[in-house]
Amino acid sequence: MSVSDLLQFLAVGKKTGLLKLSHVKVVKGIYFENGVIVGSTTNDPGEYFGQMLLHYGRINEAELQAAMEAQRKDPLRLGQILINQGVLTAADVGKVLEIRTLEIIYDLFLWKEGHFEFYVEDPLPVAFTRIHVEATRVIMEGVYRADELKRYRTLIPSDRSILELGPGWTSSLNLGKETRQLLYFLEKRKSVAELSYNMHCSTFEIYGQLYDLVKKGVVNVAGELPEIPDPVNEIVDLPEELSDWLLLAREELNGDNAEKALAILHTALRREPKNSAAQALLVDAEKKFIQEVYTKISPSGVPRIVITLEDLSHKEIEPQEGFVLSRINGEWDIQSILSICPFREADSLRMIKKLCEDGIIGF
């Protein structure tokens, strides 16, 4: 079924329950009550409620860190903590939850494949904040966004695209404040994904603005950030069959080398995203890797940058590593840093471990 047909089926049938969708290691959930969408869940860190609040500029990183610190002591829902702290109102929380649910669903329209299950009458979590979204509205917008994004990507290939001011640029152009702010970040050679984060708006909106600017000759596509390199390139004697890769990953995991197992599994899933055995083994590998890291680095440890800015400028640091590094301020502990990073816990810890091994940070 297409995503639009699936949502339409549940809405027209006035179904109540949880629609769970998965692709590779991403799992999303959409709650229905009598055919109306009332909430969502996700294991994509970029779609966590705290990250959405940051992304749309409703709170700053210090406020999120303080709320996450309070949540360690009192396991209330994050939204309720922020309300109790006077940072947000109940209306603010409800609005961002609605935006999050819409963004979670719109992303589904870009999936080329996936797996779904519907759990009939599955109850909502305790203290769940309900929203109210009509499925028809989501379907129409989701189809529209998918079509528009195809058009945008004829000029702007991917979220990794870097743009620069074109020969048609002049400061005398009649541009609004928001566009000038976009050009300010663009001059700093930020990717489409980074522009979205800094502008506090959806990636779809950024694509639309950039597409118009490219068409007008104000900006040009200058290239793309490199893809994250294949993590198993340096592993010798790698077998040809994917089934043998999984056996090798299991051997590494049993031999207390969870990081190497993760590298093999990530690459295996790039080549065969629907492999359920690799997906299941990845979950085990991530859990074990996290445990291994925490035996060497305490969650309450406070990392600090231990090299000069001049030496740091000569280091080869990937964009995601740069994001993590920029949040290391000598005051926040590991748990606080992880709470504001839009990455999976295992991925963030892998980057922190690498930064430590490279002599860039210390404890």
What does this structure look like?
- The chain has 363 residues and is α+β, with helices and mostly antiparallel strands.
- It folds into 4 domains: 3-150, no CATH class; 156-224, Winged helix-like DNA-binding domain superfamily/Winged helix DNA-binding domain (Arc Repressor Mutant, subunit A, Orthogonal Bundle); 242-296; 304-362.
- It is built from 16 helices and 8 strands.
- The protein has helices spanning 3-12, 49-55, 61-73, 78-84, 90-108, 135-152, 177-187, 192-199, 203-215, 242-254, 258-271, 276-296, 309-313, 319-326, 334-339, 345-357, and strands spanning 17-23, 26-33, 36-42, 115-120, 161-165, 219-224, 304-305, 361-362.
- The chain has a 4-stranded antiparallel sheet, covered by helices on one side. A two-stranded antiparallel sheet has the order 5-6.
- β2 (26-33) and β3 (36-42) form a beta hairpin.
- The protein starts with a helix and ends with a strand.
Cα distance spanning the termini = 51 Å
What amount of the residues lies in strands? 5-15%
The string of secondary-structure elements, in order, is HEEEHHHHEHEHHHEHHHEHHHHE
Low-confidence stretches: none
Secondary structure category = alpha+beta
Largest sheet: 4 strands, antiparallel
Mean pLDDT: 88
Count of separate DSSP helical elements = 16
Q: Using DSSP, what is the number of strands? A: 8
Helix content: 40-55%
**Whole-angstrom Rg:** 22 Å
Task: Report strand order across the widest sheet.
Answer: 3-2-1-4
Short synopsis of the structure:
By secondary structure, this protein is α+β, with helices and mostly antiparallel strands.
